[in-house]
Amino acid sequence: MQSADLVRLALPLHGLTDSPFTVLRSLGDTVARVDTPAGPTVLRVCEPGTAEARLAEVSTFQNAAAEAGLTVPHREAARALALPDGTHRWTVRSTWVDGEAPRPVTAELARALGKATAQLHALDFHPPQDWTGPVYGAAWLRGWWEAGAPRHLSADDHERCAPAVAQAAIFMEAHAAEARVIHSDLHFGNVLLAPDGQAAVLDFDGCAVAHPAFDLALTERELLDFPEAGTLTEAYRASYAGQSRQPYPFEAVEQCRAATGTAFLEWVYGSRNPEVRAQKEMWVLPLLDDLALLG
């Protein structure tokens, strides 16, 4: 089903029947701006299995907003949407934050993202090649970790992941405040566990600039969808190369783009079922090794 069709089905659940809308994001969750007489609102139709993370995500942003100095969306309603095929999707309606709506992607922003990516790589994070920037706010990340880890991680996994969270927090304190590049998908499916015991906070393909939850993703992959793709991509890659003093990893990016977002990273903690996790490791570990993402 197309993203626009999902939005049309979800509108009546939130009292928005026949309201005009614009689809902002169709990769993964569908996100749309809906125009109402009272002003715009945001409607998200969650992918199967992601609703819990999305609802927790907005709550986390709200709780951390004062400390981090951010303006964040406020969740207005969550409703279950029954689809014609018999499945269900969660839909979430949130406030639209004026002045922090999806911004035009400029060469300047692309350069900033390239520089941030290279800085992360220089710190030996070994992230996937579509990272676009750091999480904003070290205190925010630490609070998220401390609040959620006991419920989601085994003691062994918590011990393995804690150093990666601490390292990410250090990086944010040093580099992230000015750029205000924000991770918008913080959940424990986005903590990568490597077979050698290393771990990393990852999956910044839903990040935003100064708007933590409902902006367009600004990854190398998605920049290609814009009319100015050539200029933006060149700026991004040149900035990466200038910061890292090494060529941009074209081959790795091309291979990563062949898989979808978090799918190519699905040997992450999120699979508590050991059989499922073992199956994921079988196909993802060779890919990561081929891309030299493990160092």
TrEMBL record:
Signal peptide: none annotated. InterPro entries: Aminoglycoside_PTrfase, Kinase-like_dom_sf. Keywords: Kinase, Transferase. Residues 29-241 form the Aminoglycoside phosphotransferase domain. GO terms for molecular function: kinase activity. This is Ser/Thr protein kinase RdoA (MazF antagonist). The lineage of its organism: Bacteria, Thermotogati, Deinococcota, Deinococci, Deinococcales.
